[in-house]
Every structure is written in C-alpha cells, then in structure tokens.
C-alpha cells in the first residue's frame, strides 16, 4: 500500500470529466430512490408489513391477474409483498450502513494503531489482518453465528468485521506515509496530541480513499447480509430483509414467484447501482485504487 | 529458497493456530454449551454429566491445552448431535462438494480468463463492453438469486433439469453453472484489469517499437506478466473449493460440506462447525502457500530477490 500514492499522476486525461455518464446517473437515481423508500417505509407502505389478509393469500401482482389492492401481490399468509419489500429495503440498508461504518471505524482505528506504535503492536495487527484475509468471511461469520446464536445487534457488528482488514491496511499505509510528510510533523511539533493529529489532520487527508473503500464494501455487505438471511441465519422473523424474503419466497417458487422476484431484483439493482457509482467515484477521486 | 519456504510454512502454521484459538475463544465466550445442547428443564445431574463428558468442568487454560492437544492429534471431537466423529461426518461430504466446485472451477478458468484477455486486447470494443457488462452483472447478482432464477427457467418453466437434490449428473448442472458464472465474471474482470495494467507498461511499448509482432508481444511479454496477479485470485478460488458452495448447496439441497455447515450452524452443533472451520482454514492456507511458491516459478525477479535475501 505504501507505494500506492505516487503512480496516479500520469493516469486519466483531464477531459470528459465534467459530465456524469448515463449509467452513473441512473445508478444515483436508484440509490436515491432506495434511500427515500428506506426513510419513508412506514409512510408509503400500503399495509403494515406483518398484516395478514387471509382471504387474499398468494394473490398475483397487477398485470398477471392481481388487483391494485396488493400491487405486487401477497405471500402465503396474505401479507402485502410491496409493504414487506419497503420494510426489507429499510432493514437491509440499515444493516449495510451500520456494518460498513463499524468496519471502516474499526479497521481505520487498527490501522492507525499499527502506524502509530509500530513494533509489536503493528505485528499483532498485521497478524490479525492476515488471519482475516486467510478465511472466507462467510465461513467465519457462520462459525460466530453458530457459537453465539443470533441477534440483530450481533449480526450488524459481525458484518461490520467484513473487510475491516482492507481499511486497516489502507489506513496503516497512508498514515505511515502521512507521518513522514511535513504537515503531520508540523502539527506534532506544535504540541498536538497523537489523537488530534490522527483525527483532525491525517484522517481528513486520507478520507477520500477510505470512502471509496466503503462504496466497495457496501454492496458486498448487502450481498452477505442477504445471503445469510436467505440461509435463515441472518435477520430473523418477524423482522424482514431482502435476503429473508427471497429465502421464504423460495418455498413458493412455482406457485407464487413474485414473492421472490421483487426482493431479488431489488438486491440486484441496488448492488449494481452502488457498484457503478462506486467505480465511477473511484475513477474520479482516486485512480490509485483501480 | 529453503529459508523462504520455512518462513512461509511457519506463517501458515501460525495462521492455523490462530484459527484454532479463535474457535476456542468464541466457543468459550458463547456461554455454556451444556445449556445450549440440553433442554432448559434438563435435570442438574444430566447437565453435570454432560459437562464432565465434554471436559467443561475443568479450568479454562486446561481446556485450552487439552483442546489444542486433541486437535494436533487429529481429534476434532464428536458431533454433539449424533455422536459420530465430526471429522468423519465432514469428510464424507467432501466428494459431493468437489463434484460441484471442481467443474465450476474449470468453467471459471475456461471462460473467465479468455474473456478477460480478449476484452483487454480489444479495449473499448463492443465485445469488451459486453464482457464487462456481463462481468459486472455476474458480480452483483447474488448466487442464490442466480440459482433460483435458473431453477425458475430451466426446472419450472422448461422442465429440462431437476430443481434440486442429487443422484444423477443432471442434478449437478444447475449448481455448477450457478457457481461457474459468478466466478467467471469475477475472474474476467480481474484478468482484464491485470492485462490492461501490463499492456500499459513501457516494456510492451519497447517490444512493439523494436518490431516484435503483436502476437509475440502478447504471448511473450503481456500474458506471463498478467499471470502473476491472476494466479493469486485463482489460488483463492482453489482454496475455497471446500467451502465455496455454502449458499449454492443450500439452494439446490446438495448434500455437501456447505449444506452440512448451514445445518450444523442452525443446530449449533459446535464440533462440526469447528471441524469445517479448520478444514477450510487448512485448505486456504495450503493454497496460499502453493500460490507463493508459484510466484517464484512465474516471476524470476521474485526468485532472485528471495535467493538474495536467503543467501
């Protein structure tokens, strides 16, 4: 990571930078829509997401024989798929936001610790980094869930540890090179405590790189969350998330595929949108990460 | 070279030891396994007997030492649910998993690498755009969604293939394709960017400038150099042969290691979970080790640096 700062200079001609590509604009629009849905889920949902409508079980969406009463149809208990979808989007985004922030904060903190103390602290952090990088995260997460059982808080914290080692590596490398630069030394000479140097001076200087790593980690966390919830090991009912809906909808794949298709396409479009926007951000802000 | 090997081996063993410690720590942090396995209203004598049987009544450090010793001797405990050796339970599932992951690996490499190389060599062409669009799709569509969509089309609508279960080779087609497509997309994207990186290097320009035919430049200079980062990611794929199909096996009710893991997690059958964790760690570490050795074979610069460092 230490050599990552320099080679950027020759990349990317300065032209064609001003206009936002169509795909990125659509992606941004989709993300905005999802955020709006997540914020307003209670207001815009036609029904409570747990409300049963037993006379209209497994009714089809509008367009393939359903009525406007349940725009996206209902599930096996007559619960409105659209309302469940809105609340699932809220839950999945909430988890992904929480976990991304936890991961970034923890990883960056560990990276700074390693950069500040060097010596055995650094070796210990690097050993932990190696350990995390050597196992597929899904397996680690499953093991922890087996050992600890499941609760929403634990689940979010657990997902937060996804990709922490990436932030730690980046933060350590950048903090070490920043420490060698004039500004950090200058503030230190003026008598600033280490915490102030890292928080007020080094962090703002490496923030763009960290934010780009977050846009990369965010869709991965959505996929992880939905995967685990799909397996029945993530978000537990009565709460619902996108993966959760797909998991339960799977039982009705033949009779009522809409239960599963609505959340499935939401997952695909959301991760796609964030990836496209993230790639674009990365190209614009930090060509070194490519 | 020998010293390099030894240090790599030491690191590999350290990682395994850390995984064992991790398993022990979370196991102990998670509360009393006796109360997890036995029902709440079990008589105290039964709980005491259970704890004695699993060594839970000894001091913590003693448990750790015993735990480590047992694992070193290959004793990974018995399934707390059906009492058989966890290692037996796990190893008898391995062939089923490999029956999915090995063909899937062949698909990933067979499609992903050529597609990535082609896209890089024809940068910004229509094919490049198509390959990259498909690669991004393959990366963002979660495997369980892809699997279920394939089931919906090929099993439910068309009725060509079974939707799940095992028995014949036809049952394996959809899971293998599901695994293969996603991995091929990742590999194509990765190979393309590795190739583009190499193609932008001065030595490629030099080689073309001195009149080496383009094909020879690609074959002699670009491909070998782009192979180095690509090997890393293939190594990761090889390392996840055992555990890479957790979700897909569940989608298709395939009786492999991944399915066993999911069931063991929901039953909190800790011995089995821990056994799979160690097995996965061992495969990952072993394949990382092989990748490191391959680097030396692929890149003479690294080999020399190491020889210099070791001598």
Automatic annotation (TrEMBL), chain A:
<keyword id="KW-0813">Transport</keyword>
<dbReference type="GO" id="GO:0005886">
    <property type="term" value="C:plasma membrane"/>
</dbReference>
<keyword id="KW-0812">Transmembrane</keyword>
<dbReference type="InterPro" id="IPR035906">
    <property type="entry name" value="MetI-like_sf"/>
</dbReference>
<keyword id="KW-0472">Membrane</keyword>
<dbReference type="InterPro" id="IPR000515">
    <property type="entry name" value="MetI-like"/>
</dbReference>
<keyword id="KW-1133">Transmembrane helix</keyword>
<feature type="transmembrane region" description="Helical">
    <location>
        <begin position="137"/>
        <end position="164"/>
    </location>
</feature>
<keyword id="KW-1003">Cell membrane</keyword>
<feature type="transmembrane region" description="Helical">
    <location>
        <begin position="20"/>
        <end position="49"/>
    </location>
</feature>
<dbReference type="Pfam" id="PF00528">
    <property type="entry name" value="BPD_transp_1"/>
</dbReference>
<comment type="similarity">
    <text>Belongs to the binding-protein-dependent transport system permease family.</text>
</comment>
<feature type="transmembrane region" description="Helical">
    <location>
        <begin position="93"/>
        <end position="117"/>
    </location>
</feature>
<dbReference type="GO" id="GO:0055085">
    <property type="term" value="P:transmembrane transport"/>
</dbReference>
<protein>
    <submittedName>
        <fullName>ABC transporter permease</fullName>
    </submittedName>
</protein>
<feature type="transmembrane region" description="Helical">
    <location>
        <begin position="258"/>
        <end position="281"/>
    </location>
</feature>
<feature type="transmembrane region" description="Helical">
    <location>
        <begin position="202"/>
        <end position="224"/>
    </location>
</feature>
<feature type="domain" description="ABC transmembrane type-1">
    <location>
        <begin position="89"/>
        <end position="278"/>
    </location>
</feature>
<dbReference type="InterPro" id="IPR050366">
    <property type="entry name" value="BP-dependent_transpt_permease"/>
</dbReference>
TrEMBL record, chain B:
<feature type="transmembrane region" description="Helical">
    <location>
        <begin position="226"/>
        <end position="251"/>
    </location>
</feature>
<dbReference type="InterPro" id="IPR000515">
    <property type="entry name" value="MetI-like"/>
</dbReference>
<dbReference type="Pfam" id="PF00528">
    <property type="entry name" value="BPD_transp_1"/>
</dbReference>
<dbReference type="InterPro" id="IPR035906">
    <property type="entry name" value="MetI-like_sf"/>
</dbReference>
<keyword id="KW-0472">Membrane</keyword>
<feature type="domain" description="ABC transmembrane type-1">
    <location>
        <begin position="94"/>
        <end position="295"/>
    </location>
</feature>
<dbReference type="Pfam" id="PF19300">
    <property type="entry name" value="BPD_transp_1_N"/>
</dbReference>
<feature type="transmembrane region" description="Helical">
    <location>
        <begin position="133"/>
        <end position="160"/>
    </location>
</feature>
<feature type="transmembrane region" description="Helical">
    <location>
        <begin position="98"/>
        <end position="121"/>
    </location>
</feature>
<dbReference type="InterPro" id="IPR045621">
    <property type="entry name" value="BPD_transp_1_N"/>
</dbReference>
<dbReference type="GO" id="GO:0071916">
    <property type="term" value="F:dipeptide transmembrane transporter activity"/>
</dbReference>
<keyword id="KW-0813">Transport</keyword>
<protein>
    <submittedName>
        <fullName>ABC transporter permease</fullName>
    </submittedName>
</protein>
<feature type="transmembrane region" description="Helical">
    <location>
        <begin position="172"/>
        <end position="190"/>
    </location>
</feature>
<comment type="similarity">
    <text>Belongs to the binding-protein-dependent transport system permease family.</text>
</comment>
<feature type="transmembrane region" description="Helical">
    <location>
        <begin position="271"/>
        <end position="295"/>
    </location>
</feature>
<feature type="transmembrane region" description="Helical">
    <location>
        <begin position="12"/>
        <end position="31"/>
    </location>
</feature>
<keyword id="KW-0812">Transmembrane</keyword>
<keyword id="KW-1003">Cell membrane</keyword>
<keyword id="KW-1133">Transmembrane helix</keyword>
<dbReference type="GO" id="GO:0005886">
    <property type="term" value="C:plasma membrane"/>
</dbReference>
């Amino acid at each position: 990571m230490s050599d990552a700062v320099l080679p950027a200079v020759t990349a990317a001609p300065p032209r064609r930078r001003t206009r936002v590509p169509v795909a990125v604009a659509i992606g941004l629009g989709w993300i905005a829509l999802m955020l709006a849905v997540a914020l307003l889920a209670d207001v815009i949902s036609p029904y409570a997401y747990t409300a049963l409508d037993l006379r209209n079980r497994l009714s089809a969406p509008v367009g393939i024989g359903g009525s406007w009463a349940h725009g996206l149809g209902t599930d096996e208990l007559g619960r409105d798929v659209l309302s469940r979808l809105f609340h699932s989007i809220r839950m999945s985004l909430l988890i992904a936001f929480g976990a991304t922030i936890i991961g970034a904060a923890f990883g960056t903190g560990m990276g700074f610790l390693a950069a500040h103390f060097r010596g055995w602290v650094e070796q210990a952090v690097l050993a932990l980094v190696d350990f995390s990088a050597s196992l597929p995260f899904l397996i680690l997460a499953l093991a922890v869930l087996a050992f600890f059982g499941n609760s929403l808080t634990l689940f979010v914290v657990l997902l937060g540890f996804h990709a922490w080692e990436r932030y730690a590596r980046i933060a350590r490398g950048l903090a070490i090179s920043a420490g060698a630069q004039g500004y950090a030394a200058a503030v230190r000479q003026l008598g600033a405590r280490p915490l102030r140097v890292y928080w007020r001076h080094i962090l703002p200087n490496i923030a763009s790189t960290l934010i780009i790593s977050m846009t990369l980690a965010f869709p991965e966390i959505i996929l992880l969350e939905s995967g685990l919830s799909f397996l029945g090991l993530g978000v537990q009912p009565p709460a619902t998330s996108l993966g959760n809906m797909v998991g339960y909808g799977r039982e009705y794949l033949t009779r009522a595929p809409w239960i599963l298709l609505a959340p499935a396409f939401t997952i695909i479009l959301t991760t796609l949108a964030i990836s496209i926007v993230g790639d674009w951000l990365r190209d614009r802000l930090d060509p070194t990460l490519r | 070279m020998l010293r390099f090997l030894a240090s790599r081996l030491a690191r590999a063993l350290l990682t395994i030891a850390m995984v064992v410690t991790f398993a022990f720590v979370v196991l102990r942090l998670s509360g009393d396994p006796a109360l997890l396995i036995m029902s709440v209203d079990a008589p105290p004598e039964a709980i005491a007997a259970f704890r004695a049987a699993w060594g839970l009544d000894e001091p913590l450090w003693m448990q750790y030492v015993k735990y480590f010793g047992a694992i070193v001797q290959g004793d990974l405990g018995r399934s707390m649910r059906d009492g058989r050796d966890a290692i037996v339970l796990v190893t008898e599932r391995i062939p089923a998993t490999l029956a999915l992951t090995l063909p899937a690996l062949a698909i990933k490499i067979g499609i992903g690498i050529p597609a990535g190389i082609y896209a890089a060599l024809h940068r910004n062409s229509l094919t490049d755009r198509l390959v990259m669009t498909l690669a991004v799709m393959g990366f963002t569509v979660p495997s369980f969604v892809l699997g279920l969509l394939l089931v919906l089309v090929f099993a439910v609508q068309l009725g060509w293939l079974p939707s799940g279960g095992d028995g014949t080779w036809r049952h394996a087609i959809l899971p293998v394709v599901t695994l293969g497509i996603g991995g091929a997309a990742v590999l194509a994207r990765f190979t393309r960017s590795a190739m583009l990186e190499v193609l932008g290097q001065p030595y490629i320009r030099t080689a073309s400038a001195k009149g080496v035919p383009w094909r020879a430049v690609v074959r002699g200079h670009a491909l070998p150099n782009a192979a180095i980062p690509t090997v890393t990611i293939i190594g990761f794929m090889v390392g996840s042969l055992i555990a890479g199909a957790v979700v897909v096996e569940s989608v298709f009710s395939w009786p492999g290691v991944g399915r066993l893991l999911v069931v063991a997690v929901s039953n909190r059958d800790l011995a089995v979970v821990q056994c799979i964790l160690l097995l996965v760690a061992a495969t990952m570490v072993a394949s990382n080790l092989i990748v490191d050795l391959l680097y030396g074979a692929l890149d003479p610069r690294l080999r020399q640096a190491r020889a210099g460092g070791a001598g």
